[in-house]
Amino acid sequence: MYSERDYQKLLPQVIEKLYEDSNYRELVVKLLNRYRSPESDRVKLGIIRVAQGSISELKQLVNLAKQDYRDLLCAAEYPLTASRYSLSKKDPEQYRALKLKEVQEYDDWLKEILNTF
């Protein structure tokens, strides 16, 4: 159901494409490196996705991830289903469709940035 993502490979590629200015890129990497816990590359990529280019948002999201990285992953990867778990029991097909849509939207975001994913 979910596409396999190599977050360790994707993270530097996304950073390189999104932050072409080397000074800005260095700042982003420095801020992201404040998070060094479970699933580090996956969480950092999620931070980039949710921050949408905003440094102030990126700082806040790093702090959120340091408190509970699962909250960050919900925002980055599961925005349609994170608050709708009961739907999985009430309407499993609709829930499954939403899960598939989340995966597709994330993959589309990566494709848009990398043009090769």
Main sheet specs: none
* H and E order: HHHHHHH
- In terms of quaternary structure, the protein is single chain
Shape: globular
Describe the structure.
With 117 residues, the protein is mainly alpha-helical. It has one domain (7-114). The protein contains seven helices and no strands. The chain has helices spanning 7-18, 22-32, 40-51, 55-67, 69-77, 87-90, 92-114. The protein is globular, with a radius of gyration of 15 Å. The mean pLDDT is 92.
Write the layout of secondary structure elements.
Layout: H1 7-18, H2 22-32, H3 40-51, H4 55-67, H5 69-77, H6 87-90, H7 92-114
Helix pairs in contact: 1-3, 3-4, 3-5, 4-5
Question: Brief overview, please?
Answer:
It is built from seven helices and no strands. With 117 residues, the chain is mostly helical.
Supply database-style keywords:
mainly alpha, 117 residues, single chain
